[in-house]
Each structure stands twice: as structure tokens, then as C-alpha cells.
Amino acid sequence: MPWDERIMTEDELRGMSCLALAHIGDAVFELLARTAVCCGGKRTAEALHGAAVALVSAPAQARAARRVEGALTEAERAVLRRGRNTRVRAVPRGASFEEYHLATALEALFGYLYLKGETRRARELFDLAAAEEFRA
What we know:
By secondary structure, the chain is mainly alpha-helical. About 70% of the residues lie in helices and about 0% in strands. The protein has helices spanning about 10-15, 20-40, 45-55, 60-70, 75-85, 95-115, 120-135. The mean pLDDT is about 90.
């Protein structure tokens, strides 16, 4: 297996496609979302699922990307920009082209942070990204 639980270097991360980063980041972001809704108090399984889905939808992730943009380092901004410019084949129903690109960019950022070993930073950005959603 090529991945051995080590932290990846910047060069290795730059060599990885944005879609690969987004693929991993999708799982990281969803795990953070599920953790947040589960820690939010007792709910039914259906309510937990609905709350998590509301956080990980493309429109919600696009709003989250806009929220965190100002708090990013230059390297993180570069990943977000790279992710936003990634060519995607199809846009899911319920999301605009722009929302889907921003959601992909956010997922690429979370994949980048995870593979770089910066899980604390990923959590910090998730908290900033999702704060508005929890107030709603």
C-alpha cells in the first residue's frame, strides 16, 4: 500500500490531483460534520443524518468555503484556488456550477490538511466554516 500513515510533504501534496485531495477531504469534512452533530446533544438517527447532510451538501460547503477564505494561510489559499479551478464532469442536482466548484475546493483543502497531518487546523477551520450553520 503506497500510504503508510506518514505525513506527506508539500511536494507530494502538490503532485496529487485536486480531485484526489477532494476525495479524501470529502470524508474528512463529513467525519467532522458527523462528530459535530453527534456532540450537539441527543437526537434520533434520522435527525443526526439530516443535520450532517445539511452540512456536507454542495451549497453548504460553498458557504463554508466563503466563510473560511479570509482565515487561510497563503498555502491554504493556493489549495483552495487550485481546487476551485479543477475540471469536474457533472454538477449534482441542487447545486450551481459555482457552488459545486467551491465545495470541491473546500474538500481539497480538508484533504490537504489531513494528509499534511494538520488535523487540529482542519478542526479549527471546520468550526469556523460550520458555525453559521449551527446558529441557523
